[in-house]
Amino acid sequence: MKKIMLMCCLFLGLTVAANAQSRPGTTDPVEKAKELQQQLKLTDGQTAKIAAIYTESAQKFDKIKVAHKGNNDKMLVAIRPLRAATVKKIKAVLTTAQVAKYEKMVSGKDKASPGWSDGWSSTASN
Fold first, then answer.
1. Residue 77 has pLDDT above 60, yes or no
2. DSSP helix/strand/coil, 115
3. What is the C-alpha to C-alpha distance for residues 111 and 104, in angstroms, rounded to an integer?
4. Spatial contact of 79 and 121, defined as CB atoms under 8 Å apart
5. How many CA atoms lie within 13 A of 106 on its CB side?
């Protein structure tokens, strides 16, 4: 009986660990924009504009990744201006109240919105 319980606990633990690792967030720009829509209560028009911003940023991010051939130090330096530009473009689409909440999300101070501290970088495909 102990062996069966141990096997069940082991299986349950592995299942939970695998699920936690397989869901880091979406990489699709449209899905990322829809997540932001839920968080900030965006209109459909705002969501479409933000999806386009995420798509453009993801394409530029992919180019940076290729150009630096996986050198993370160089990529991080090259990504900073892209991230800043992306965040600025997104803020231009938002209302004043939405900007305040978005800034809180991006800064990582909003514990209810984990994963937004990167603001946009997880939109690029791996």
1. yes
2. coil
3. 9
4. yes
5. 18
pTM exceeds 0.70 for this model:
no
Residue with tokens 């993370």: 72
How far apart CA 39 and CA 46 sit, in angstroms, is: 13
Asked whether the beta carbons of 89 and 36 are under 8 A apart, the reply is: no
Which among 73, 59, 46, 63 has a CA at the least distance from the CA of 38?
46
- Whether the CB-CB separation of 103 and 113 falls below 8 Å is answered with no
* Residue 14: Cβ within 10 Å count: 10
Given a contact cutoff of 8 angstroms between Cβ atoms, the answer to whether 87 and 121 are in contact is no
Both tokens assigned to 92: 């231009």
Token representation of residue 19 = 């699920």
The answer to whether 50 and 90 are in contact (CB under 8 A) is: yes
* Residue 53 CA to its chain's centroid (Å): 13
Nearest-5° angle of CA 28, CA 103, CA 31? Answer: 15
pLDDT band at 78 (very low <50, low <70, confident <90, very high): confident
Pair of tokens at residue 90: 């997104």
Which has the higher per-residue pLDDT, 90 or 106?
A: 90
